Amino acid sequence: MNNIKETIVVKTHNLGFPRIGEKRQLKFALEKYWRGEASQADLEQTGKELRRRNWRHQSHLDYMPIGDFSFYDQVLDASFMLGNIPSRIADLGGAELDHYFRTARGRSAADEPACSCVSAGEMTKWFDTNYHYIVPEFDNDSCFELNAERLLSQLEEARAFSSESQDSQPKPVIIGPVSYLWLGKARDGSNKLDLLDKLLPVYGKLLEQLAQVGVEWVQLDEPLLATELSSEWRHALRKAYFILQSAAPLKILLATYFGELQENLQLACELPVNGFHLDAVSARSEVLKLIDWLPSHRVVSLGVINGRNIWKTDLQAQLDWLEPIHERLQGRLWLAPSCSLLHVPVDLDSEDSLDPEIKSWLAFALQKLQELETLAIALNHGRESVAAELAENSAAIAARRKSMRVHDQEVKQRINNLEGSLEKRCSAHTARADLQKRRFDLPLFPTSTIGSFPQTSEIRRARRDFREGELTEDEYRAIMQDEIKRCVKEQEQLGLDVLVHGEPERNDMVEYFGEQLNGYAFSRFGWVQSYGSRCVKPPILYGDISRPEPMTVEWARFAQSLTSKPMKGMLTGPVTMLNWSFVRDDQARSETCLQLALAIRDEVLDLEQAGISIIQIDEAALREGLPLRKSQWKDYLDWAIRAFRISANGVADKTQIHTHMCYSEFNDIIEAIADMDADVITIETSRSDMELLDVFDSFQYPNEIGPGVYDIHSPNLPSVESMIELMQKACERIPAERLWVNPDCGLKTRSWEEVRPALANMVAASRQLSERYTNL
């Protein structure tokens, strides 16, 4: 390495690593445990093996994260570490892990007695991602008590690993106290910040315990700094860190991610911590201010590798930008991904069937850590020390920019020719509702489901065999049609009013459509965690989008032929297709969304032409695409709602358009949701006890709505009485004639043994409600 520049070393670290394993080992271990087919010791052993594998992958870093592994959710882990367990669960018997899973899903294991099944904790989206967390529950009497045994045990494991590898040092990763309160809900309407004085001593004890076992650095995540904060929350941050600075003799790295800090940047620089991590992908414009404002003895950690998308980083461009910063900061500069790598798949090298050209443009978690290492070596020893790696990276970046597979002039021309009339229905909803009421003649409180029915092992096996060539197309179609017949028969026997075909042919609500659109590519093992054991495999949106041929018409037409009841055509909306994909980063997301909207519009019109009279266009991910700052919401909602309207509004007035949204807060975007002008919207409300409908006290939502009454993410059986109670709460806010009764999400993750009685109870609840309110 002659003539290689030597300088003060840049340090590298990571904010978090995917916990599910390259082949979803955690998912399968969890589900075996929940079914009673594995012991707690078996589950703990799988966790230990996954943690060790993850640390091995990160052993070249100066600091590797500890505490990022979780059996369900890191926020739920924090609640248990802080002793904040809901009383309805804490009062039950059983081990801590039983309480943990009851909070997450309402039940610990399949053989658990009914008396131990409780309401699960509310679940919602983690900032603007597709990851879901279990919402901490507070009230005015909430107390906290430290139980750091699990974190300390993982730290001990990591120290043993580090002593063997003699490489990376453990760095505990913990949700900061202010963000923890900010993420939770006060069930009694009390002020969450009143709990800060109770919470800070527990964090202080935690830092003391970590210092006692020799921890040098601890990472406290305060992502709320990327949001608009009131003076009370800003004061809480100052108070918290001025108190914690003297709690223990260790160093605090304060971490933020997902956005710019803007007016909170100066506050962040003033907090008495030893280092600060900034997401330099989404807040690059603030880096120089951070360096100028942060005291000169503090570490500056820059998140220079995108932790939320899978495109390769342009390493030469990053070095052009980083070298002057390194020259200025010297040993104070740390490099990391922008955020936890939880949001990307584990290893691109596992992809043996992905198109080689497209694969060359990508980087999963392991490859992102390799990019990080390359940047650090180049800064520490000169670019010539990694010349081969930089040349390979530059070639891939250039090839992607020039590829003819990315750009389609016909698609771009269609976007340029868009007319405003495409966004509008022929008539207002009141006129449409009259036509639709006469056409469908549905009872009061009509029942339906959200789309999917149980994906049995037989269905998954048939799809796999067809994909691998072991079934002919005709054989596969016959199997799927038999399953559709079964779904239709089951629904008719249950007495549902509006039916669905059950979606047996669909692997995923985004991937299924992406496979039939130009501009998408797909991985085999590109899994990321959505919540608990639920993993998704986002498709890779790399180029301009178009629809070569109809995608769902054949299946919908067949299903409708089996029944005289209305059969919903089921589609995924353009905004959800966008937000649940790994999206190209070479053009505006709004442009890509419009391309998706036109493709979905073509499918909607073909379904209507085929005789499908109710079409559901799911926008489950509308909310999660919102910028973290409300001041930026309007721009996003303008183009997102426009995209939905373009996709939906080409149909006749007598055709009923439904949409569905799940596990999000809607109160502050209700006007935008109304602007979608869907005839019926279904939303998740069961876990929130209809709290999400509070907005209808002040906002007169004009269209029909189906508040979910059956929490499909819990194995618990909802009773008729509980669903009636939920719908009565809905009736206090919304006229009965505009209410539907439905589950809160699709049923693919449940079994038929769970679904049949739950839907039977739901139909019974609907009929009782109909009798009760018809006679009023």
β-sheet strand percentage: 5-15%
Strand order of the largest sheet: 1-12-11-10-9-8-6-2
Uncertain regions spanning at least 5 consecutive residues: 1-6
Radius of gyration: 26 Å
Structural class: alpha/beta
**Helicity range:** 40-55%
Residue-averaged pLDDT, rounded?
Answer: 93
Query: What is the β-strand count?
Result: 22
Q: What's the helix count?
A: 27
Beginning-to-end CA distance, first to last residue:
87 Å
Biggest sheet statistics: 8 strands, parallel
**Which descriptor suits the 3D outline?**
globular
Give descriptors for this structure.
27 helices, 22 strands, disordered N terminus, about 775 residues, alpha/beta, 8-stranded parallel sheet, single chain
How does the SSE layout of this entry go?
Elements: E1 11-12, H1 25-34, H2 40-57, E2 63-66, H3 74-81, H4 87-90, H5 96-105, E3 123-125, E4 132-134, E5 137-138, H6 149-165, E6 169-175, H7 177-183, E7 185-186, H8 196-212, E8 217-221, H9 231-244, E9 251-255, H10 265-270, E10 275-279, H11 287-293, E11 299-305, H12 315-329, E12 333-337, H13 356-359, H14 365-381, H15 387-402, H16 409-416, H17 429-440, H18 457-467, H19 473-494, H20 511-514, E13 518-521, E14 528-531, E15 534-536, E16 540-546, H21 553-560, E17 568-572, H22 574-579, E18 582-583, H23 589-609, E19 614-618, H24 633-648, E20 656-661, H25 670-676, E21 680-683, E22 704-707, H26 720-731, H27 752-774
Parallel strand pairs: 1-12, 2-6, 5-7, 6-8, 8-9, 9-10, 10-11, 11-12, 16-18, 17-19, 19-20, 20-21, 21-22
Antiparallel strand pairs: 3-4, 13-16, 14-15
